Amino acid sequence: MKSKQELTEILDFITEYATYLLGSGVHTSRVIRNSQRIGVSQGVDIQLSSFQKSIIITAHDEHSREAITRVVAIPALPISFERNSDLSALSWDALDERLPLDEIRRRYEKLIAKPRIDPIFVLITVGLANASFCRLFGGDWTAMGIVFTSTLVGFSARQQMQARGVNHFLVFIISAFLASLCASSALFFDCTAETALATSVLFLVPGVPLINGVIDIVDGHILIGVSRLINAMLLIICIAIGLSATLLMIKDSLL
Amino acid sequence: METFWNTIADYNSGTWPLQIAIVVIGLILTLLLYFRPSRTVRIAMKLFMIFLNFWIAAVYYLIYCAPREYNGLMALFWAIMGGLWIYDLAVKHASLELTGKHQSFAVVLLVMPIVYPLLSLALGRTFPMMTSPVMPCSVAVFTIGLMLAFSERVNIILAMFLAHWALLGFSKIYFFGIIEDYLLVFSLVPALYIFFREYVMAHASGKSKPSAAVLNTLLILLCIIVCIFFTITLLHQIKTA
C-alpha cells in the first residue's frame, strides 16, 4: 500500500519521464507502455492521455484506492533516438530488476546528462546526407557539391535561429529560402540544377512528426496523431514558401 | 564566357576610380585594426564590410552584370552577406580584436585582392578585361582573412556562405576556365579548415560528442575530398588547354 506522499513521488517521476520522451520525439503508444511499465515496477497503475502540448497523467494505487492526477506541459527538446532507446531500456530495467524509485531516478538523471551530438558534427553529416539525397534523385557530382554547401548554409542558419528562440515557422521559411537560394547557383553550370534545387531543402522535411503522427493514428491516438500531422504539414508549407521565394526570382526558368 | 569578360570590362572601366578609393579605405582600416585598434576603428571596419558586400550586390551584380543570367540571385546572395554584417554590427558579435593566431596566413589572405589583378596581368589579360581588387572573389578572400586575423567569435552562417562561394569557384574553373579562381580555392579551403578547427576547439566541451579530435579528423577528411575535386579540376584544365 502506498501513502499519498509515495504515490506523489512516483507520479512526479513518471510525469517527468513521459514528458521528456514525448518532447524527444517518441510516439504516444511507446510513451504509455514505458510509463505503465515503470508504474507496474512501483506497484501503481498509470493512465495517460497525451495532447500536442501537454499530458494528463493519473497514478492509482489499488490497495489504498488513492489516485492523483497531473496536467503537465511537454517541453520542446531536441530529437535523440539514442536517448529514447536508453530511456525505454530503463523502463525494462525498472521492471525486470524491481528497482526502487531512487535508483530509477538516479539512472534517469545519468542518462539525460549523457553528452549530446556536437552541432558541427550534425551540420556536416546533414550536409552529406542531403548531398546523398541529391545523388539518389539523379543529381551529378557538381549538383551534389552545391547541395552539400547549400545545406551547410541553410542548416547553420536554422541552428543559429533556433538557438536564439526565433519562431520555428519563420526558421523553416528562412532556412528553406537560404538553402534553395544557394542551390540555385547550380543554374549557372552545366549540371542537374533542378535536382540540386529540389533536394536542397530536404533536410528540413519533418520526418519524425510525420511518422509519429501516422503511428499515433494507427494506434488509435487520433487526436495527437492529427495534431502532429497538422504541425508537420504547416512546416512543409513553410518549406514550400521558402523554396517558392527562390523559384519566383528565377521565374523565367522554373515557375 | 564572352558576356562574362565583357561585363567585367564594363565594370572596371566604369568604376576604377571608386575601386581605388575602396582599396585605399580598406587598406587604411586594416592597418588601423593591426596597429591602432579602437572601438571606432572596429565599427568603421564593419561598416566598410557592409558597404563592400552591398557594393558587390548592387553595383557589380545588379548594374554591370545585368547582361548575365540570374544576376539578381547573385546580388541577393551578396546582399544577404551584407545583412549578416549589419546583424553583426547590431549585436556586436564579432569582436574584430587581433587573435594573434595564423597571422602570416591571414596577411596572405588580406593582400589577395591585390594579387588577383596581378595574376590576371601575368596571364596576359589587359585592363579593363581583367580581375580587379573589388570583385566578389577578392572580397570573399579578404573577408575570410579578416575573420581569421581579427575574430575569436565569427558568424558561422557567413563562413558557410563563403564555403559555398569557394565551391562555386571550383565549378567556375571547371566549366568556364577562369584561372584566377584558383587563388580563391587555394586560399579559402585551408582558411575554412583553420576557421572550423578553431570553431570546433572553442566550442568543444565534455557535454557533446564526438570529441574535438574526431571532429578535426572529419574536417581533414572533407578537405582531402575537396583536394581530390581540386586535382580533377586541374587535370581537366590541363586536358582542355
Question: Topology of this protein?
Answer:
The complex is a heterodimer of chains A (255) and B (241).
Chain A: H1 4-23, H2 28-41, E1 45-50, E2 54-61, E3 66-73, H3 81-96, H4 101-112, E4 116-117, H5 119-136, H6 141-163, H7 168-183, H8 193-199, H9 207-218, H10 222-249
Antiparallel strand pairs in A: 1-2, 2-3
Helix pairs in contact in A: 1-2, 2-3, 3-4, 5-6, 5-8, 6-7, 6-8, 7-8, 7-10, 9-10
Chain B: H1 2-35, H2 39-64, H3 71-91, H4 103-122, H5 136-150, H6 156-176, H7 181-203, E1 208-209, H8 212-240
Helix pairs in contact in B: 1-2, 2-3, 4-5, 4-7, 5-6, 5-7, 6-7, 6-8, 7-8
Walk me through the structure.
The complex is a heterodimer of chains A (about 260) and B (about 240). Chain A has helices spanning about 5-25, 30-40, 80-95, 100-110, 120-135, 140-165, 170-185, 195-200, 205-220, 220-250, and strands at about 45-50, 55-60, 65-75, 115. Chain A is mainly alpha-helical. The model of chain A has no long low-confidence stretch (mean pLDDT about 95). Chain A is built from ten helices and four strands; from the N terminus they run ααβββααβαααααα. Chain A is elongated. In chain A, strands 1-2-3 form a three-stranded antiparallel sheet. In chain A, about 65% of the residues lie in helices and about 10% in strands. Chain A has two domains: about 5-110, no CATH class; about 120-250, no CATH class. Chain B has one domain (about 1-240). The radius of gyration of chain B is 18 Å and the shape is globular. Helices cover about 80% and strands about 0% of the residues of chain B. In chain B, about 40% of the residues are buried. By secondary structure, chain B is mostly helical. Chain B contains eight helices and one strand. The interface of A and B includes residues 149, 150 and 156 of A.
